[in-house]
Specification:
binds farnesyl diphosphate; 15% strand; 8 helices; globular; Undecaprenyl pyrophosphate synthetase; single chain
């Protein structure tokens, strides 16, 4: 498929994934509670999701809450969950206008029944739209691989599969990201140089762009910069 081209005439990846990092430091720099940083992060997400749509990005995956983020204070956790709930309510209201397809990667069973319901509703009501936003919620790359292994083992027990038949393609089909192409570009703002359990399988050949800006300050110019760094990379996929 031909990649789409933005206003600056640069090709854009089909799938961009982002680790929305730096909300806490953004708030601390301003003497604000961490939750204010997440609220500003949610605003940055809204802008970037809109911008991705205008650029023609087909899939945007964001790390909203990891399996490890439960270690944070109850206040901070409930603040993030509230922001997600508010966003989903707003998305459900504006669904016709925005035409975004919602998908959720992660074990949603640990979320409040209310939030689970909003996720299910957002996913089912948006299934016909084309631009896909994947929210990683109570998501961990290792957890995803354990879950996939369990599902495959169960298929073997049920006589639906044989261990020796397992291929990379088949294993991909047991992941939350089934039917979604791997991200070509993964962006981590905030100056941290880690993958933090994000899309471990899917990132095998992704190009990483690490940036010094904190997520709440991340704007369309930063996305342009990340895409232009991506366009200067020479992707060889193990070849020469
Ligand atoms: C990491 O930054 C960020 C998170 C764990 C939460 C991300 C959540 C949001 C941006 C809000 C979600 C809502 C929507 C609508 C997308 P950090 O808190 O670890 O930052 P720090 O490293 O500076 O402390």
């Amino acid at each position: 498929m031909t990649p789409s081209v933005n206003e600056n005439k640069q090709p854009v990846p089909r799938h961009i994934a982002i680790i929305m990092d730096g909300n806490g430091r953004w708030a601390k720099n301003r003497g604000l509670p961490r939750t204010a940083g997440h609220a500003a992060g949610a605003e940055a997400f809204r802008k970037i999701a809109n911008y991705c749509r205008t650029l023609g990005v087909e899939y945007l995956t964001v790390y909203a809450f990891s399996t490890e983020n439960w270690k944070r204070s109850a206040d901070e956790v409930s603040g993030i969950m509230r922001l997600l709930g508010n966003y989903l309510k707003e998305a459900l209201r504006d669904m016709e206008k925005n035409r975004v397809r919602f998908c959720f990667f992660g074990d949603l069973s640990r979320l409040s029944p209310n939030l689970q319901k909003l996720c299910e509703e957002a996913q089912s009501k948006s299934s016909d739209y084309d631009v896909q936003v994947n929210f990683c919620l109570n998501y961990g790359g290792r957890d995803e691989l354990v879950r996939a292994t369990r599902l495959f083992a169960q298929d073997v027990v049920d006589g639906k599969a044989q261990p020796q038949d397992l291929t990379e393609e088949m294993l991909s089909g047991y992941l939350y990201s089934k039917d979604v192409p791997d991200p070509e570009l993964i962006i981590r703002p905030s100056g941290e140089l880690r993958t933090s359990n994000f899309l471990l399988w899917q990132s095998a050949y992704s190009e990483y762009v690490f940036m010094n800006v904190l997520w709440p300050d991340f704007g369309p110019d930063d996305l342009d910069e990340a895409i232009s760094q991506y366009n200067r990379r020479n992707r060889r996929f193990g070849g020469v």
